[in-house]
Amino acid sequence: VTSNNAIALVIVTVQAFAGMWINAFIVSVICIGLLKKKSFNSNEKILLFLGCSRFGYLCMSWLHFFILIIYPCFLIHPIPQLSSAIQTFFSSSNLWVSSGLSVFYCIKIANYRHSFFTFLKAKIDRIVPWLLLGSVLLSLSISIPVYNITAELTCNNPNATNLGNYFILNVQMEERIFPMFFISGLASVIAFLAVIFSALLLLFSLYRHKRRMQANSVKNISVEAHIKAMKSILSSLFLFIVYFTGLILSLVYATNEGDTMKLLILAFVNVFPVVHSLVLTFSNPKLEKTLLRTLLCVKCKVC
Questions:
Q1: Each residue of 143-160: pLDDT tens digit?
Q2: Which runs of consecutive H residues, i.e. helices, occur in 38-78?
Q3: How far apart are CA 244 and CA 241, in angstroms?
Q4: What are phi and psi of 76, to 5 degrees?
Q5: Backbone dihedral region of 38: left (phi > 0), alpha (psi from -120 to 50 degrees) or beta?
């Protein structure tokens, strides 16, 4: 193991375990709440699904990276194919559900009198389970062909377990399945645009609502809800930009012989599921209160 690979492994490990911890925390709090009240709302359904997909993605990503650096000889059929397919599934689910959460906040909180928007606001709780099911089916439709193509390429390339060859293998896979890769990229752009439009609609709704409330000096609950949702959506938008920048850089440097830049890009891309989960935790009063109480208990025990 080279020094650069060792440093990258430490960075990815710290990043992955921090992300797995915060997402496991989100899932556990929601599940405990479900056991207490026997039901949960649409927001909790989205957060639960998002936490599970991010935990799975970070776990699989770290495990594959660890084996790739420490025990590359273990990457034999069918491990590379399964790893690529599972990571693709969780990554795609993460992307779609993150954008869906921003759209959910916009529909729930924004105030518009258009008939279609009113219809969505009334039916959004029934639509959410179907949106989650749709994200699963879409992610499966992308990950299954990835498994098949990766199996074909690894069988034809016995040196694919080498770190440099592994990244080149990904590029070859994308060339072989260009139509599917194009559709996947188009879906990612649609998800990104959904976050942008949600932010713009919510911002305009907040502006109109504040103008109506200017004459009223009393603090309005709707304004607070708008501002909290805006913080969450804008943070999602910023992290989406970071994520897409990392994906573009990974394609640019994929055929580069040096591994350092590729490893840094990998850490750069994995920022999204870690930091965004923290933002969602502190945007949710229940999760924030539970997290602060947990950290206080840990601090007291340590001291």
A1: 887 777 776 666 555 544
A2: 42-70
A3: 5
A4: -120, 165
A5: left
Return the biggest CA–CA distance within the chain. Answer: 72
Q: d(Cα 137, Cα 156) in Å, to the nearest integer?
A: 29
Kindly state the tokens that stand for 191. 């998800």
- As a residue count, the chain comes to 303
Q: Are 92 and 142 in contact (CB under 8 A)?
A: yes
Q: Which fold has domain 3-156+169-302?
A: Rhopdopsin 7-helix transmembrane proteins (1.20.1070)
CB-CB contact of 86 with 59 (8 Å): no
> CA 118 to CA 114: how far, in whole Å?
6
**37-86 tens-digit pLDDT:** 877 788 889 999 999 999 999 998 888 888 877 877 776 777 778 888 88
Q: Would you list the DSSP string of 115-136? A: HHHHHHHHHHHHHHHHHHHHHH
Distance, CA of 115 to CA of 26 (rounded, Å): 35
Using CA atoms, how far apart are residues 303 and 299, in angstroms rounded to an integer?
6
- Cis ω on the peptide bond leading into residue 78 (within 30° of 0)? yes
pTM equals: 0.83
Contact 42, 124 (CB under 8 A): yes
Listed by start position, the domains of the chain span 3-156+169-302
Give the ranges where the chain is alpha helix by DSSP (H). 3-37, 42-70, 79-109, 115-156, 163-176, 178-212, 221-252, 260-269, 271-283, 285-302
The answer to whether residues 287 and 40 touch, using CB atoms and an 8 Å cutoff, is: no
Q: How far apart are CA 244 and CA 20, in angstroms?
A: 21
